[in-house]
Design brief:
318 residues; alpha/beta; Rossmann fold; 2 domains; two-stranded antiparallel sheet; 15 helices; 14% strand
Length: 318
């Protein structure tokens, strides 16, 4: 990007169907300018992972993703040796006259090294976007290693020596807060909270990502999603579910939502059986949304408070 400022970032993200508010655009601007990792937290399904993918596309660089999980260790994230190839090569060169030291030096060369995401990130010819996804799923030991890696941007491989980053990656870390991250990691990063979108933002997202979606259907989907998020669900639906729902409805050639269509397609949105019972208990409250034929009443305005009959649901402004 020729101009790495918040407005340019937001415009570039919007071109790619990602509606970013000013706070998020500014956080990305500062992360790029200061070359610091950006920790993005928020509910599941609001676009944390997608934001890293879009950033890589905006910067015209490679995205390298490290998916964290319980039990992830440093070696799994860094590198491993290609043992089958090493063994084959050792057998094929047993009679070539080379010394044991020469053979060992060869099989423990970069030719037999399998790079994992963190090592890939520091050996790229061009600065990539490194996505450390769901870092809260990894344990404290890996978090401590990651902290050291983010500070030094180098790694020591006993057989090869110290490898330093050719170009510092742009780093995005995401967390769903399944556990609390350490203060040390938080201090190392810039931070931004990515909430559920406002009603207006969600409609803009639907139109950006699902071309041809009618205004009425987009409004109904957005209002229902905000209503559902106001219920005591085990798994509140995110933006990903909004998009899946919109695509499903278009594939069924629906231009609006009614009670029958809701029943047929609710599996796109609610993924836990018990949540269906919660929705069933509030059918009367959802009914006005299904019968509503209104669309936007004024440019950029939907109101910040929407009464769905089971309490007032506030739709946050990004």
């Amino acid at each position: 990007m020729s101009r790495v400022d918040a407005a340019a970032i937001r415009a570039a993200f919007r071109e790619r169907g990602f509606i970013a508010d000013e706070a998020f655009g500014t956080a990305l601007q500062l992360a790029l300018a200061l070359e610091k990792p950006l920790l993005i937290e928020g509910p599941a399904g609001v676009g944390k992972t997608e934001s890293a993918k879009v950033l890589a596309d905006v910067l015209h660089t490679r995205l390298i993703r490290l998916q964290c999980y319980e039990g992830l260790d440093a070696m799994s994230a860094l590198y491993e040796w290609n043992y089958p190839r090493q063994m084959l090569h050792a057998r094929l060169t047993e009679a070539d006259g080379s010394s044991l030291e020469q053979r060992e030096a060869h099989i423990f060369s970069e030719r037999f090294l399998l790079k994992r995401p963190l090592l890939e990130a520091i050996t790229e010819e061009r600065s990539p976007v490194l996505l450390v996804d769901e870092v809260d799923r990894a344990d404290e030991a890996f978090e401590a290693f990651l902290l050291e890696m983010l500070a030094e941007w180098q790694v020591t491989i006993p057989e090869l020596g110290t490898i330093r980053a050719r170009h510092k990656p742009s780093v995005i870390l995401t967390s769903n807060r399944t556990r609390e991250l350490s203060d040390a990691l938080r201090r190392r990063c810039l931070f931004v909270w990515l909430p559920y979108p406002s009603l207006e933002q969600e409609i803009d997202i639907l139109h950006a990502r699902v071309p041809g979606l009618s205004e009425r259907l987009a409004l109904q989907i957005a209002r229902l999603m905000h209503a559902l998020r106001g219920l005591s669900l085990q798994k509140a639906p995110g933006v990903a579910e909004s998009l899946d729902w919109a695509l499903a409805l278009m594939s069924l050639h629906r231009d609006h939502l009614d009670a029958k269509t809701l029943e047929q397609t609710i599996g796109c949105v609610l993924k836990v059986h018990e949540d269906r019972a919660v929705l069933d208990a509030h059918r009367d409250a959802v009914a006005p949304i299904l019968s509503d034929t209104s669309s936007r009443t004024e440019p950029g305005g939907y109101g910040l408070e929407t009464d769905f009959g089971f309490g007032s649901v506030s739709t946050p402004r990004g």
